[in-house]
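Progress narrative, work stream C.
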Amino acid sequence: MKILCKKCGWGVEFPDSEIRLLPVEKGDEQLFQIRDLKSGNVSELIFKCEKCKGIRGAIEGVIESKWSKETFVSQRVFHDPTPNGQINMRVVLAPVNLLCHTDMDEKEQEHFINILILCGKKLAAVWKHMRDYGLIEDKLIKAVEQGPPLGGGEHVHFEENEDLFMEVDEFLVQLKSSLDYLVKTPIPILGFKHWNLRTFGDKGQDVIGALRNNIPKDKKKQAEFIVKMIIETHQPWLTDVIDARDRIDLLHNCQVCRLLAPHEEGSRCDGLPSLLYTRGSSTA
């Protein structure tokens, strides 16, 4: 049997074997299974034409067997809602494509992929709440701008909206949760002996401590790179996010209203977040 390039016709032959196409998302026909008729061993092939570099192949000389007619059941484990699938491409697929260059066994790789998929799901939730907040905010601003004036002179109107509160709350919760998931990615690489963190504790300081103290000596250089270039570079804004999450969800030093506007005696300011409109203009 052969696999022929659909673009130029170049082919590769597999004598004494039968071949079947593995169904993958969007009909990408480049992944095949080859079964040796004598031993029954099965191997996989990602097709790429050596002549024109095409990735679409077709099977020539099909053998009608029970193995070749087996029904496949596929399941989509992650749907990326971001434009051009940025989360999937950068957070999930990029590390997965490097697994073949590691010494991780099949079980460790599966564990690593599962963690990456969960990280992707969490980041997708973060993106969704950020998007929905913007859509709700734009709708509210437009409604106020097009509506009749409220009061006159220096009148200030606070428009409170629970939908905005819920989107901010969920955005902060999911972002912190995505950090807690990300912290678990070293487990299948290093093992529980060297990495037993469960959360992005102490706003990243627990992770920095583990990278500097728990990593094998031959990985110290890479660990310090992660500390300097990734964690410490982003620690300031991550700290702000975690502090905001704690103020809302854990009621730590909760002074939400004072962050929005001066709180005068007898005034009412109990919504987070609020939109402030003055003289027909709007400011979020």
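Work stream C, second folded protein:
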Amino acid sequence: MGISLAQIRDISHRMTLSEDGDANEKKYGKIVTELFPNYEIFWKDFVVPCTNRVEIEDKNNIFERVHTRETVSNDIIDIISLHYSVFTNLAISHFHLESIVNKQGLDLLKHQFAFEGFYTHLCSASDIAEYFLQQVYLLLLECRGQESRKLQKMKKENFLNRADKWYEQKYLKGYGDYLDSGKPITMNIPPQTPDVLDEYYQGSEDWKNYQRFIGPIRYYRNVIIHMPGMGILLDIDEKGDIYLLVPKKEKVGEYNKWSKYLSNIRDANRKEADFVKTEHQMSSDIENTEKLLNALWKKPIQDMKSLVWEEANPCLLDKYDILLT
């Protein structure tokens, strides 16, 4: 049984993560949305209508309220699950940061676990965010009867032209990287998610800023995960407390192998220039990630609102099982 558009507007706008979210959203909602408020805006407008919250008023009935309505289409459910996964990975990143900031004493293994876990989940949040944005874009295209130019089947001539450009631009460097690290090189057909999002965001500064930032974060994560104990230094502050230093993100390429680390660390001046407290690097990176995701969320929010409220798009309303009356 469908619910009316007027009911949706009235109910969803009264919802908040702190009052109507699940246990994780209630605990970490304020922390995540401090710099990422558009997460909650999308949640109110396009996640809440998928759930039993619009039909069950009793806030104590948490388990039933957060479940999706049975008549909502599977592709919508998959999209909102991606949205929630972005949140949970950011929340786990905050948890790891808190465990370092609030440390009692110093357990090197626990500290390293939190440091590695932080960047693992921060990068997972960005990976899932990109996939979420792509799926929203494809949903918008479907509901408007359009197709992505990036996802069209290529003719043999176009494929060979692309392969020729890939060889000239990427093969030699990729071959060298393979010899150095053992990581294979690939030519992605069809395009990867970022290529589709290039089409969606059409060269916007928000998308460019995000891409410039997230590449070094992923490289930093890869060095941390594949080189346990990466260049960690112990130091003592003026109070006599021991703390840990790690290479700054922009310097990590100079410490991505133990041979480089051992060679560079012999220069005492490099410690101050190249290293930073773990919690300082982590705080900076999650703050910037959430700000950049917040900027990216503006477009899908506006586009989805346009489909629902301005166009009353029948395809999208049917997927949500929303009535016009």
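The chain has a mean pLDDT of 85. No further action is required on this item.
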